[in-house]
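Take a record.
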Amino acid sequence: MKKTALLSVHDKTELEALAKALSERGYDLLSSSGSAARIRESGLPVREVSDLTGFPHIMEGRVKTLHPKIFGGILARRGHPVDEADAKRHDIPMIDMVVCNLYPFEETAKLDSSLEDLLDNIDIGGVSLIRAAAKNYRNVVVLTDPTDYALVVEEIDAEGDVTLPTRQRLALKAFRKTSGYDATIHDGLSDALGVERDVLPEESVMRLRKVMPLRYGENPHQSAALYEPVFSDMPFDVLGGKEISYNNILDIDSAMRGLAMLGSSCAALIIKHTTPCGMAVGATPLEAYEKAYSCDPLSAFGGIVGVTRTVDAELARAVASHFTEVIVAPSFTDEAIELIRTERPALRPVLWKGKRVSPLQMTGTWGGVLMQEDSLPPLPDPAKGEWIGKERNDRWEDLILAWKIAALSKSNSVALVRDGKAVGIGMGFCSRVYAVRFAIEQAGEAAKDSVMASDAFFPFPDGIEAAAEAGVAAIIQPGGSVRDADVIEAARKLSVSMFLSGHRTFRH
């Protein structure tokens, strides 16, 4: 029995080739007007949908395929007595393949089109065709992607028909297409209508597109890729060097967050395993980098550098003189790019565009997906916090730099800063006093007259006592411990100035 293929596509890539292949293999071709015209230009016989239904396209093409003779032919269960009897009674021919893709809503939305243009580009008939064919995949092959055309033709030649596993895979792909299409429409219309999206809705539907396949994940046994939401653009461009890895992207993310927190200051940071091992401000980007590097040269090995200013050849040469994976910056001179390309070709210069792709942070767990608002912590305000002991507004810039380092570091974290540079960073410790002791040991003599920041409250006075013994001049911390009174008493007793900001900055 001769088979029928319905072809109704907006994207006509490889349409003529597929139509020719199907016609040569005995398929009757049925098509909507636009696709039919293209097939007819190829000299192939094709029947239009309106000829089958006896009903013309109406409402400027809004209604074409929505007809019982079309959907009955797609949804009919072969061998089912009721379905076959109804089809015979109403003269409904069977449709064995549906080739369909959808109006370009996403592309239209990206052009900042009018609301009417957006509404006109919401596909109704196409989505219905795809869903119907996918539902009845045992009897109907559904094709939504031109890259699958050749495979289907090959299976017809090899097996006489499309195999069940392939039908199942294509059906699942079709449902993924339609679900993503609906999610895109929701987001696009929300923006067009000026409706603020609920950051944490009762049901979350997010369409993500693969933008960068990765060799593997954190470890070689884990597969990985980078995805981004539709209507988003990559917040960074890789300008050269080796392929970017999963771990590189995590560190680049930390670098971008750090640069955003550093803002307009002339500053540099070094990231290792998503946490800073150096950060500093300077009169020039080179000075800032050299100060940041001097905090912990051992940990900086194989790290990622971020700078808030343009990378010139002089800075590029300094960074390239050490083993560095990536350098992130808002701009690069041509000379800097050429120097990196010739002297350190594996080094990846990454252009940060000063933005991000999503207002959410998502973390997959064995218990589900954690979601939270992705926002930088509020900057401490000397007018809103509370000083314990002597006010040290003369050290405020160093205190804020220390606070930014601690906020960017893995919890529990503390940071010591003196003269615009990190001198000691304790991060990722289970005990806060251990973090304090590590930072002090790393700083050595530089701990004296430094300032210290903590990402969360001190649960006991021991951290304050260790800081005072090392000669720390001032501390910034959020407060909020049930033992705040003990901690405050220790600070007063030891003559350590302490600012209570009121805001914790955990980063797990």
